[in-house]
Amino acid sequence: MTHVTKTAGTTTETVETDAGTARITWHEAKRARLVLAVSHGAGGGIEARDLTALAEVLPAHGVTVARVEQPWRVAGKKLAPAPKTLDTGWRGIWPALARPGLPVISGGRSAGARVACRTATELGAHAVLALGFPLHPPGRPEKSRADELLGSGVPTLVVQGGNDPFGKPDEFPEGTYALVEVPYGDHGFAVPKRADLSQDEAVAVVTDAVVQWTGSLG
Fold it and tell me: Distance of alpha carbon 10 from its chain centroid, rounded?
């Protein structure tokens, strides 16, 4: 059972999963060739600056953006459940994401990026977009999650803040993925006022990188 609401430029759809009710906000491209599905992290929602910017920019480049709210967010809970439950929610959402019949890029920020990496091969994702991949908990580099990233099994782009406490770009291991740095950016790509690029310019680093990368995927 799904419920669909249409407003100017967007369509919101609820989807039932084994983890509860999820929600997808669609930003459709006129001549779409790809779907980019992006989910939020454990501490925020789809209003995050990078997810919002991608939804505004990508449709003009032939990429429909689906911003996905995991069931725990839809239910109004403050804390994300265990990774296994997040994966269950993502699996349940996937048929709706694949419904347009286009290749689907599985993406997300932080915890959402981990979900995308863990499930990409199983779900048949075309590629993975990892925004602010949490390589390790802050101050705990020995607790590496590199295996999740390296195990995605599909073309993967990581966009990482230069000052991300969950893993700076130079901490990332060698691999076949691409990595773009947002100078001075923290985990949410916020940049300090003293930085020599503005907040808008920092967000443009993200969107420009994703536009270029999605263009190369064919």
Answer: 18
Question: What is the value of pTM for the model shown?
Answer: 0.95
State whether residue 72 is helix, strand or coil. helix
Query: Which residues touch 174 (CB under 8 Å, ≥6 apart)?
Result: none
Residue type present at position 24? I
CA distance 186 to 161: 5
Helix, strand, or coil (residue 22): strand
For residues 49-76, b (16+ Cβ closer than 10 Å) or e, as one string?
Answer: bbbebbbebbbebbbbbbbbbbbbbbee
For 6-50, what is each residue's pLDDT tens digit? 666 789 999 999 999 999 999 999 999 999 999 999 988 999 999
205, 183 Cβ separation under 8 angstroms:
yes
Residue of 49, 54, 122, 108 lying closest to 80 (CA atoms):
108
